[in-house]
């Protein structure tokens, strides 16, 4: 604790006016005010909020064999968020089949969504071929262009391989014959029967994700369906809905494997299509001098039913082959996983 | 809450109570047993009954000082360790008649003597006051600064009645995003990390939506203590700063009041005795007048409305007890952004503070100490919603991550707090002791409608208990060392947290060196979407205990925000008129929760953990002349957040994203001057702040999730911002000159005051907010001339 002489500021009780100091202060204020007013009056600094880019377009589309028309959505990269005009886009869209040299000039079309917003989808009437590579190039009138190259995977087919049975590990491998590109969206659907038929619906479908579980072999990708592991998932799902009857178990009437064979550029981080991650520009993009993604691929599916003894080894209840005809009663439970 | 927890909590409370009582005796074992005498009481002003702080109280024998002390903010003093005998008892204070009496002191007797002092202006220059500190722009000691009502009058204001927030925003290290929004960032800390107390009640958002006003009008204040960091163990539960405001008592001798009107605010204050010389009241009501006033003559929409009501009853129950009851209610409503086509829709934000509490200041007969019992209840409710709901649009959107404005119902957050605290202070020769216990019962309720997607927010009741001890050792030669510890139970962990604190002050002649260190934790936090400056809706939430259920779902689980403070300061008093101060600070903050980075211009967000580091220094100079005052300060601050978002590595090739948060103002200058001329009081303030970080965009396009054989014809795509690296842009600097001029005319016991003000004298177009989606700029107040009038009587 110190002893010192202090003066509490008390505005109205101070001693007599120090006129000289006051006039000096007033003069100082006037000088500051005049300087401020003349220097800063109404001044406003520009702020660069939008840096701009030389990339002219963002492209989204998928090349797939089958349809006789191909579509790619084109967004001009703008310097402000504004509604698109219904007028034709300042863009020339050309595709080239790099395998044959065939070119197509695409046409602009305007679509309008439920909120009345316009956008542009370019299209061209041609079929894409398996194993061919394509280049799409969108050019603005000032010469700026964005482009992407895609390769449509070779045609392959799904082939059921002999089951792999070992102690407590039963697998049903499916070969994606001669496929060397990427596989995505691999799903296995079990069509199951869970209680003896006594009338009413007794069937449920379960879909399990298998993306990332494929293995490369000399003949192509192999998807090993883990029957002896999947039954635990099915049992858990049935238990949660009160449909698990241990005395009956669960039988499989049919299974379906569906997947997409895609080009190698279609490669999201960790094989997960997370919009919160992919929304960052450039995260999943094969568009040069622009943003977006143009993919190529096609879907395959195979409906099959493993041998009864394979299913029994995996822990399933044996069922009659004729059970798989009652498809109309099927319910979906569990939904698609890992989408 | 499970019964077992309740039982456990009671046990904790009993434990603390026993520990505290034991602590009282340990701290001051001789207090009740020594063969010495004690005198205690209250000192007040004879004219209006106001307690007088820093009054010199001493006993002399033959003009030799036997013991001396000063009164505290309640006017209470305790003078102990007086040897038995007859002495001259002297109470003196600058500007007051000296009180002298001859008193016989007997061993082990506590004498109570409350004193009223009579003003005597002639004695002002002759009185030596023994004091530790008074207020002043450069009077900062290890982050602590006291502000008194007369300090507020040194600044220009658009209203005749000054406001505390106007002073706060002129301090270096205090950043507001602008003259609207009601948020203060103190030395890198966020608003929800500031503990704001009014008569010991916690006020969660006390600053009004228009930045000139708060719940603290100058004419109800007694003193305010600002701890920009390094605060002692009495305070806890916050990790950045403390604003401790005490109001004054009403005049218990006669009625007084004031009514004022300005283009911004109209107000009425009334005070007077309920029982003369014993019980008084003071009440203040303010209501904004902006939409009908200032907005009518400046070409700027000001859709703000706010107001506050404060009332206090103070009773001098007897010579040993003072009791007060305070009540506060505030309301705010505002639209910070105007809607533009294609841009962010206008959102309306409202909040209310309600609080009441009692303070009971005691001078116990059986112990030579002062004690204070506080009981308070406060409630804060905020709500944010669209001004006008947009029509719902069916069948739109191709993925669930995007939420449209029309989908967003109003968001609400409510927090209620009941607090009981007991503080005891002992005054010794070489050491003062402070100890206390605190129990808080808090209830939180939020309806966020998906605003923060990866946290669980629901109705939660939270019980906290804390105990603190702080010792002030007076080593000698001006050296004071104040170690302390706060032991606090948090819900997130079973074991109590020990938070050590240390303050050291060394006064050597005209020099003062001070330092402070402390660890701080905060279990109840406010979460705000800081992606844009205009977002001020705060969801108050507690940190949940980690459980198997929430371990993955709720990123806050078990992550108790904490901070380490370090402050080192130097102060120089060259003479009575000039003071200089330099102070450096460091705040290291852990377990912040900040919005995840996303390119979606959407209304919801995920949160992610982050750490923060803030360091800087400030320089202050003050000159007090006769009727002329000037001060200038400069503050440098550098705040960096490091976020741990999983995608950072993918996007930027770095494990963490380091960025400047949007309140990181690097440079600040405030220059203040006031003087009297020809009967006019004039004041001027120029403030400068370097630009705040913001998110620059490269451009705009749209996003379509290509995860399948997507038919792009049917999917319009979600609007997307192509951002540059987060917060890489810097807004223009902020600067403004304000000027006020007032004069009062007295008519007997009445006074009429006229005040003219010019806000933003040179009409600087300071940017408040930039909507990168539309390039719409919302500027802060333009040049606003105002004329206010106040009529007062006493």
- Helix and strand pattern of chain A: HEEEEEEEEEEEEEEEHEHEEHE
Mean pLDDT of chain A: 81
How confident is the prediction overall: mean pLDDT of chain B?
83
Oligomer: heterodimer
The percentage of residues in β strands of chain A lies in 35-45%
Unreliable stretches covering 5 or more consecutive residues of chain A: 1-17, 322-339
Largest beta sheet of chain B, briefly? 22 strands, antiparallel, barrel
**Structural class given helices, strands, pairing of chain B?**
mainly beta
Shape descriptor of chain B reads globular
Largest interface: A-B, 92 and 101 residues
**Level of helix content of chain A?**
10-25%
Number of domains of chain B: 3
What name goes with the CATH superfamily of the largest domain in chain B?
TonB-dependent receptor, beta-barrel domain
In total, the number of strands of chain B is 47
Largest sheet of chain A: 9 strands, mixed
How far apart are the termini of chain A? 70 Å
Describe the structure.
The complex is a heterodimer of chains A (339) and B (794). Chain A is mostly beta strands and 339 residues long. Among the domains of chain A are: 57-151, Immunoglobulins (Immunoglobulin-like, Sandwich), CATH 2.60.40; 158-262 and 297-332, no CATH class. Helices cover 14% and strands 37% of the residues of chain A. Chain A has a nine-stranded mixed sheet, with no helix packed on it. Chain A has a five-stranded antiparallel sheet with strand order 4-3-7-8-17, with no helix packed on it. Chain B has three domains: 31-126, Immunoglobulin-like, CATH 2.60.40.10; 140-246, Beta Complex (Ferric Hydroxamate Uptake Protein, Chain A, domain 1), CATH 2.170.130.10; 247-793, Beta Barrel (Maltoporin, Chain A), CATH 2.40.170. Chain B is built from five helices and 47 strands. Chain B has a 22-stranded antiparallel barrel. Chain B has a six-stranded mixed sheet with strand order 9-10-15-16-13-14. Residues 1-10, 29-33, 124-133 and 389-407 of chain B have low confidence and may be disordered. Chains A and B meet through helix 1, strand 1, strand 2, helix 3 and strand 18 of A and strand 35, strand 37, strand 38, strand 40 and strand 41 of B.
């Amino acid at each position: 604790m110190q002893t010192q002489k202090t003066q509490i500021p008390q505005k109205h009780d101070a001693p007599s006016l120090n006129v000289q100091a006051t006039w000096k202060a007033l003069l100082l204020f006037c000088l500051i005010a005049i300087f401020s007013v003349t220097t800063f009056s109404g001044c406003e600094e520009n702020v660069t909020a939008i840096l701009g880019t030389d990339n002219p377009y963002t492209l989204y589309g998928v090349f797939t064999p089958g349809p006789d028309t191909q579509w790619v959505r084109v967004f001009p990269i703008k310097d402000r968020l504004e509604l698109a005009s219904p007028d034709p886009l300042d863009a020339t869209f050309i595709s080239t089949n790099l395998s044959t040299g065939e070119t197509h000039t695409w046409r602009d079309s305007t679509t309008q969504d439920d909120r009345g917003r316009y956008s542009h989808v370019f299209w061209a009437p041609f079929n894409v071929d398996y194993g061919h590579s394509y280049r799409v190039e969108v050019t603005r009138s000032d010469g700026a262009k964005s482009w992407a190259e895609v390769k449509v995977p070779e045609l392959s087919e799904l082939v059921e391989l002999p089951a792999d049975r070992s102690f407590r590990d039963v697998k049903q491998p499916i070969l994606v014959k001669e496929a060397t590109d990427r596989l995505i969206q691999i799903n296995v659907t079990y069509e199951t029967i869970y209680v003896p038929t006594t009338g009413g619906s007794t069937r449920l479908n379960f879909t399990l994700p298998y993306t990332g579980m494929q293995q490369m072999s000399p003949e192509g990708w192999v998807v090993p369906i883990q029957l002896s592991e999947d039954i635990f998932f099915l049992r858990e799902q049935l238990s949660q809905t009160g449909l698990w009857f241990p005395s009956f178990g669960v039988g499989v009437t049919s299974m379906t494997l569906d997947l997409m064979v895609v080009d190698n550029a279609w490669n999201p981080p960790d094989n997960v299509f997370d919009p919160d991650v992919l929304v960052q520009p450039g995260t999943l993009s094969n568009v040069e001098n622009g943003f977006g993604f143009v993919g190529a691929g096609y879907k395959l599916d195979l409906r099959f039913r493993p041998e009864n003894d394979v299913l029994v080894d995996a822990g399933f209840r044996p069922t009659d082959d004729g059970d798989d005809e009652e498809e109309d009663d099927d319910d979906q439970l569990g939904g698609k996983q890992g989408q | 809450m499970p019964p077992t927890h309740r039982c456990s909590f009671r046990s904790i409370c009993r434990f603390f109570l026993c520990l505290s009582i034991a602590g009282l005796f340990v701290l001051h074992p001789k207090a009740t047993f020594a063969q010495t005498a004690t005198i205690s009481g209250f000192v007040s002003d004879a004219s209006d009954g106001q307690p007088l702080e820093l009054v010199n109280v001493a006993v002399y024998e033959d003009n030799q000082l036997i013991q001396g002390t000063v009164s505290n903010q309640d006017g209470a003093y305790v003078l102990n360790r007086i040897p038995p005998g007859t002495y001259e008892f002297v109470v003196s204070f600058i500007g007051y008649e000296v009180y002298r009496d001859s008193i016989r002191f007997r061993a082990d007797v506590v004498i109570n003597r409350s004193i009223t002092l009579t003003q005597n202006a002639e004695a002002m220059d002759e009185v030596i006051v023994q004091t530790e500190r008074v207020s002043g722009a450069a009077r900062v000691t290890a982050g602590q600064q006291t502000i008194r009502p007369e300090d507020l009058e040194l600044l220009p204001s658009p209203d005749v009645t000054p406001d505390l927030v106007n002073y706060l925003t002129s301090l270096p290290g205090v950043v507001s995003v602008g003259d609207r929004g009601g948020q203060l960032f103190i030395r890198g800390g966020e608003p929800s990390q500031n503990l704001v107390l009014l008569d010991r009640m916690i006020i969660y958002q006390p600053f009004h939506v228009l930045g000139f006003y708060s719940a603290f009008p100058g004419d109800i204040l007694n003193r305010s203590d600002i701890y920009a960091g390094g605060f002692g163990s009495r305070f806890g539960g916050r990790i950045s700063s403390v604003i401790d405001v005490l109001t004054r008592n009403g005049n218990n001798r006669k009625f007084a009041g004031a009514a004022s009107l300005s283009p911004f605010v109209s107000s009425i204050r009334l005070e007077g005795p309920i029982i003369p010389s014993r019980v008084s009241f003071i009440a203040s009501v303010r209501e904004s007048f902006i939409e009908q006033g200032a907005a009518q003559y400046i070409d700027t929409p000001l859709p703000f409305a706010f107001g506050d009501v404060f009332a206090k009853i103070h009773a001098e129950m007897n010579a040993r007890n003072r009791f007060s009851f305070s009540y506060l209610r505030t309301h705010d409503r505002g639209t910070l952004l105007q809607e533009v086509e294609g841009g962010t829709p206008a959102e309306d934000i409202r909040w209310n503070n309600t609080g009441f509490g009692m303070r009971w200041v005691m001078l116990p007969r059986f112990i030579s100490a002062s004690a204070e019992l506080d009981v308070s209840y406060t409630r804060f409710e905020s709500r944010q919603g669209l001004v006008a709901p947009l029509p719902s649009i069916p069948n739109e959107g191709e993925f669930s991550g995007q939420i449209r404005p029309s989908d967003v119902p109003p968001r609400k957050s409510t927090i209620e707090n009941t607090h009981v605290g007991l503080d005891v202070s002992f005054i010794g020769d070489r050491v003062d002791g402070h100890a206390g216990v605190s129990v808080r019962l808090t209830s939180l309720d939020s309806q966020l409608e998906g605003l923060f997607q990866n946290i669980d927010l629901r109705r939660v009741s939270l019980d906290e208990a804390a105990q603190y001890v702080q010792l002030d050792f007076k080593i000698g030669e001006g050296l004071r060392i104040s170690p302390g510890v706060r032991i606090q139970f948090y819900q997130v962990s079973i074991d109590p947290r020990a938070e050590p604190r240390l303050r050291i002050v060394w006064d050597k002649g005209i020099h003062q060196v001070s330092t402070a260190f402390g660890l701080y934790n905060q279990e109840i936090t406010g979460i705000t979407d800081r992606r844009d400056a205009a977002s001020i809706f705060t969801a108050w939430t507690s940190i949940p205990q980690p459980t198997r259920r929430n371990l993955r779902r709720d990123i806050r689980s078990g992550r108790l925000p904490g901070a380490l403070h370090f402050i080192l300061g130097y102060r120089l008093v060259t003479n009575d008129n000039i003071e200089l101060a330099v102070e450096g600070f460091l705040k290291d903050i852990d377990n912040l929760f900040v919005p995840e980075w996303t390119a979606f211009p959407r209304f919801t967000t995920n949160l992610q953990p982050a750490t923060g580091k803030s360091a800087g220094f400030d320089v202050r100079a003050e000159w007090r002349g006769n009727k002329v005052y000037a001060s200038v300060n400069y503050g440098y601050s550098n705040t960096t957040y490091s976020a741990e978002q999983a995608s950072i590595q993918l996007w930027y090739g770095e494990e963490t994203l380091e960025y400047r948060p949007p309140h990181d103002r690097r440079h600040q200058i405030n220059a203040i001057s006031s003087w009297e001329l020809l009967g006019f009081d004039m004041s001027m303030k120029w403030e400068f702040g370097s630009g705040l970080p913001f998110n620059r965009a490269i451009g705009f396009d749209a996003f379509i999730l290509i995860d399948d054989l997507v038919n792009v014809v049917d999917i319009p795509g979600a609007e997307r911002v192509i951002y540059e690296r987060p917060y890489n842009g810097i807004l223009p600097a902020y600067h403004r000159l304000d000027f006020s001029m007032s004069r009062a005319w007295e008519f007997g016991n009445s006074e009429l005051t006229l005040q003219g003000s010019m806000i933003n004298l040179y009409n600087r177009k300071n940017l408040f907010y930039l909507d990168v989606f539309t390039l719409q700029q919302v500027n802060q107040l333009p040049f606003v001339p105002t004329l206010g009038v106040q009529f007062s009587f006493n």
